[in-house]
Backbone:
């Protein structure tokens, strides 16, 4: 993109945060000091200077927001924290704090915390103690417990509210519809770009930008519906859906790794174009179903550098050579130890974006049905292989981020529950410690009768007796049961 | 940053509300938005006129938010609509109208939320300012809005499909989805043989550890600090070297040409230098390169060896707002080939920027030391500027191989060049150079003679007889005082005791009719004797110590002191 002119509030790519308003900075300080105080209270007795300082910092951070905006609310929504309705960005330096506060909010069943100006160190101490008190209760009950404790202690400056469920359903439908439209549009753009590149016609840069911007926005707001759509994996459209899927997975991983919005855009664009070089190969070779001869493999292995040349050849790119995308196209089959292909002659280290795209590409390719892979691998097996086989040369931190994004049972995995029902994984567990308990959609009953659209069940929810009503016992091949996973995401 | 609220804003809000409800307040706010937008285009961000317009605009939102919870505006070609009625029109400003700047790029709706006026209104003004100046190739309204990451502004846009409008999309903040509620951490999942178990992943905590965060920070920093031009150049040239296919190599050549242009266009001069260096490396170690490809790649560096090519580069650097650091300039000019010496010499003194001039001079020096033959060739250049600079560099860098060419210039060149050639020969100071200068002691040009005298006077005894001839020459008596003195000083430095009789005669001798020499000439002889400095010379000087003529006596005294 062109750098905005002098004097403009120009977003900065290299910097972790671009434009930062007061509320985002101050909100980040509130969350950071909340985290600091929670940790201090866990480690030290109340009278310890570290605890006192942490509480004083928290009062000051909250006071700064209250002084300016006359209100302070900390709201959790999905994996996003809002302070006074401003969404806080997840960044590398605030990653731990955000995760911890979100975890506490979830465990205590809190949707929103409203703080009044009267909150002093003693009030905060009481609140934080109540939040961290060990309890086996379900979140909704814990919220009541916390409220009760604060009431008994005479602590008044806080209002705690549960997540607004009624908004949730409405929003989920809207997000799903938006994601579907965005996904379809992105596949159409990928088709246009790749076909244009094949025939040497200039592609629409504007549409490509828009598609990537839309993906970034949706992933930042709520990634679940869009990640769910990557299960579509249309055989005939593989080339195009693969570009979009790799874009989606890459941006989702990038988000987990704390990249800023503009960095996610760069990453998304690069991911979108990573296989552009394949447009320079004969279609018959790409679609060949049998084994490839050595010379055919040699051609396939040329696609990274062909991609770089193809980007130079795309008219309209001259003004803003997509050099980061070129790097990713060139390096996405390199390994972290610089093995892989193409073999570099000059010293080269695989860049972070290339590592992210390599992981996203490997996952999507292995779990898709393609001309030379008629049976896709189970997502869970692919993840295990990616993590455990160093010969794949994937960056372990990035693989970890992918697992953190899509769970041990990635979205779209068909699982057998201990109730003998079959279910499709709908969303990764929102609880980082419970990745084996995602949200699933039950698609058959215990007798194998199909249920559509099926009930959405959070496997992490317990019954009144504290037990889990359903647990995953196995993963299965959806084709064996005639299940079309994508039907449950459209 | 101006104050977010001004004292007058509440008064304004009240007035607007009084005048006629929400529509009037919206109209007033948009009128002020238009004014602030124009002020932002005309003035700097700290200009009082702009700040005043901004304060008024911010204040005008009070009246709006008092009456509506949020504001949705439909964007027309030259108007903004609120609840289907026009609230802002700019039909007379054509392509510069605020609605058109948004409409032309597909923006069809703006939804403002309370809080927009605090920080984000300035971002919108920035976007409008950039749009009003943008060319077709630059970012459009949607991208500019998207990049600014608004929290209190939502915008709907359409994608054009030929003449029709395509589907509509909305960017901006959306109400957050509340998460499905989780319980407390679960106990261990029961272990079943065919299940993917948590235990399988126990070694991987799903939070990133501190060292992993540090690794990521470092990787991200390197990703953005990376010189992408150099990186892409390496990809292309690796491909050139590893792929013998002529078709691939031809495409690489085209890409490298484009990359070089891009690097020059974006002022990445270090990248230009690296690209040229790597191209040379590739050509050196790649076998079977087709002549056409070799020629294309060699032409990349060669274009900077022409007056036109290097001139364009130097001109661009001379006017650039921030000149690259010295090491970058050094790297850039370090890639210039031998043929660039002439253009460098021609251009160096014409540049305005001192650092650039110094960098070019340093480049000239490097080229001279590496390619003295080229310098010798340029001494005979028909271009007087190049010839002059070449002569100067030959002298300053004591380029001995240039002596014959300088000799030729000394005898055949024009006035200024001959003096410069003499000076260069003097600086080189080799026997050959001094021999040539000795031949120029009687040159018609005073400047040449003086340079030659000074040079041989540094100890070129072979010229002693020639200088003595000058001392004896009657024309010397008609020369100006400075030249006279230099001739005698030079003679004194070269002649030793052999010259004392002549000098003593000039100082102390009398003519047949008993007259002394001209006092000025005697004073010069005294100076020369002082240079000789031997006992015999001192004795000659002592004889004149009581001289009545003040000029002579003074010169003698000084010479005696100097010779002591």
Residues:
């Amino acid at each position: 993109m062109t750098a905005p002119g002098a004097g403009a509030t120009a977003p900065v790519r290299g910097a972790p945060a671009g434009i930062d308003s007061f509320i985002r900075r101050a909100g980040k300080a509130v969350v950071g000091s909340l985290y600091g105080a929670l940790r201090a209270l866990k480690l030290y007795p109340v009278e310890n200077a570290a605890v006192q300082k942490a509480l004083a910092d928290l009062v000051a951070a909250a006071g700064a927001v209250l002084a300016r905006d006359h209100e302070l609310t900390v709201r959790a929504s999905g994996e996003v924290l809002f302070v006074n309705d401003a969404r806080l960005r997840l960044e590398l330096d605030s990653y731990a704090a955000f995760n911890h506060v979100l975890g506490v909010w979830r465990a205590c069943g809190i949707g929103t915390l409203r703080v009044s100006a009267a909150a002093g160190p003693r009030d905060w101490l009481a609140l934080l103690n109540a939040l961290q008190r060990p309890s086996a209760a379900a979140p909704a009950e814990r919220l009541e417990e916390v409220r009760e404790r604060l009431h008994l202690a005479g602590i008044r400056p806080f209002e705690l509210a549960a997540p607004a469920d009624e908004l949730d359903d409405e929003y989920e439908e809207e997000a799903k519809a938006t994601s579907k439209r965005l996904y379809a549009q992105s596949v159409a753009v990928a088709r246009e770009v790749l076909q244009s590149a094949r025939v040497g016609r200039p592609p629409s840069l504007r549409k490509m930008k828009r598609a990537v911007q839309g993906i970034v926005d949706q992933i930042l707001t709520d990634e679940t519906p869009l990640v769910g759509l990557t299960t579509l994996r249309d055989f005939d459209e593989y080339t195009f859906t693969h570009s979009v899927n790799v874009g989606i997975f890459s941006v989702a991983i990038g988000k987990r790794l704390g990249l800023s919005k503009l960095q996610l855009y760069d990453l998304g664009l690069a991911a979108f174009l990573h296989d552009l070089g394949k447009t320079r190969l004969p279609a018959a070779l790409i679609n060949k179903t049998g084994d490839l001869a050595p010379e055919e493999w040699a051609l396939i292995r040329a696609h990274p550098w062909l991609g770089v040349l193809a980007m130079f050849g795309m008219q309209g790119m001259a003004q803003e050579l997509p050099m980061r995308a070129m790097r990713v196209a060139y390096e996405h089959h390199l390994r972290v130890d610089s093995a892989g292909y193409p073999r570099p002659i000059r010293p080269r280290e695989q860049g972070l974006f290339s590592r992210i795209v390599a992981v996203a590409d490997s996952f999507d390719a292995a779990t898709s049905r393609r001309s030379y892979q008629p049976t896709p691998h189970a997502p869970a097996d692919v993840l295990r292989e990616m993590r455990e086989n160093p010969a794949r040369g994937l960056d372990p931190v990035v693989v970890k981020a992918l697992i953190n994004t899509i769970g041990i049972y990635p979205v779209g995995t068909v699982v057998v529950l201990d109730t003998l029902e079959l279910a499709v994984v709908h969303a990764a567990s929102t609880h980082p410690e419970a990745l084996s308990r995602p949200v699933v959609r039950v698609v058959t009953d215990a007798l194998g009768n199909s249920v559509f659209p099926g009930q959405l069940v959070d496997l992490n929810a317990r019954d009144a007796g504290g037990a889990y009503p359903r647990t995953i016992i196995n993963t299965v091949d959806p084709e064996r049961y005639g299940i079309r996973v994508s039907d449950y995401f459209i | 940053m101006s104050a977010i609220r001004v004292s007058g804003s509440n008064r304004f809000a009240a007035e607007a509300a009084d005048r006629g409800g929400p529509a009037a307040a919206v109209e007033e706010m948009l009128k002020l938005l238009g004014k602030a937008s124009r002020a932002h285009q005309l003035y700097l961000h700290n200009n009082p006129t702009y700040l005043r317009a901004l304060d008024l605009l911010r204040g005008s939102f009070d009246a709006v938010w008092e009456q509506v919870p949020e504001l949705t505006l439909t964007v027309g070609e030259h108007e903004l609509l609120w609840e289907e009625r026009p609230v802002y029109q700019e039909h007379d400003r054509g392509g510069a109208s605020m609605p058109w700047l948004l409409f032309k790029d597909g923006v069809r709706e703006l939804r403002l939320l309370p809080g927009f006026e605090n920080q984000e209104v300035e971002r919108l003004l920035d976007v409008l300012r950039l749009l009003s100046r943008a060319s077709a190739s630059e970012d459009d309204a949607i991208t500019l809005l998207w990049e600014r990451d608004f929290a209190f502004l939502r915008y709907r846009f359409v994608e054009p499909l030929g003449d029709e409008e395509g589907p509509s999309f909305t960017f901006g903040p959306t109400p957050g989805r509340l998460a499905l509620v989780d319980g407390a951490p679960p106990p261990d999942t029961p272990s079943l043989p065919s299940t993917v178990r948590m235990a399988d992943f126990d070694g991987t905590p799903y939070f990133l550890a501190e060292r992993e965060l540090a690794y990521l920070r470092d990787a991200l920093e390197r990703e953005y600090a990376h010189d992408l031009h150099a990186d892409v150049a390496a990809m292309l040239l690796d491909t050139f070297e590893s792929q013998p296919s002529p078709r691939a190599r031809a495409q690489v050549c085209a890409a490298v040409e484009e990359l070089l242009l891009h690097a020059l266009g974006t002022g990445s001069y270090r990248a230009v230098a690296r690209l040229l260096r790597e191209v040379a490396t590739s050509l050196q170690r790649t076998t079977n390169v087709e002549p056409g490809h070799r020629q294309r790649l060699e032409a990349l560096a060669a274009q900077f060896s022409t007056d036109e090519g290097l001139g364009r580069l130097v001109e661009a650097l001379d006017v650039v707002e921030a000149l690259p650091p010295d090491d970058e300039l050094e790297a850039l000019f370090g890639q210039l080939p031998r043929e660039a010496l002439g253009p460098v010499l021609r251009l160096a003194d014409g540049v305005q920027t001192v650092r650039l001039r110094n960098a070019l001079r340093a480049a000239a020096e490097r080229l001279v030391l590496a390619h003295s033959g080229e310098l010798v060739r340029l001494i005979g250049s028909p271009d007087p500027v190049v010839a002059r600079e070449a002569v100067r560099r030959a002298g300053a860098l004591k380029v001995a191989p240039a002596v014959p060419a300088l000799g030729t210039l000394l005898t055949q060149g024009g006035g200024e060049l001959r003096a410069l050639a003499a000076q260069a020969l003097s600086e080189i100071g080799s026997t050959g150079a001094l021999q040539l200068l000795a031949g120029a002691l009687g040159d018609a040009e005073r400047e040449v003679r003086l340079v030659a005298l000074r040079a041989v006077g540094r100890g070129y005894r072979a010229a002693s007889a020639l200088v003595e001839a000058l001392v004896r020459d009657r024309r010397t008596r008609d020369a100006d005082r400075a030249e006279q003195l230099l001739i005698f000083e030079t003679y004194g430095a070269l002649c030793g005791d052999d010259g004392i009789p002549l000098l003593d005669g000039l100082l102390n001798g009398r003519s047949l009719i008993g007259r002394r020499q001209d006092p000025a000439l005697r004073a010069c002889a005294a100076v020369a004797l002082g240079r000789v400095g031997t006992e015999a010379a001192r004795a000659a000087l002592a004889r004149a110590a009581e001289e009545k003529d003040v000029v002579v006596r003074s010169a003698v005294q000084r010479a005696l002191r100097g010779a002591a």
About this structure: Chain B touches chain A through 92 residues (CB under 8 Å). Residues 1-13, 174-206 of chain B have pLDDT under 50 and may be disordered. The first strand of chain B starts at residue 71 and ends at 75. The first helix of chain B runs from residue 7 to 42.
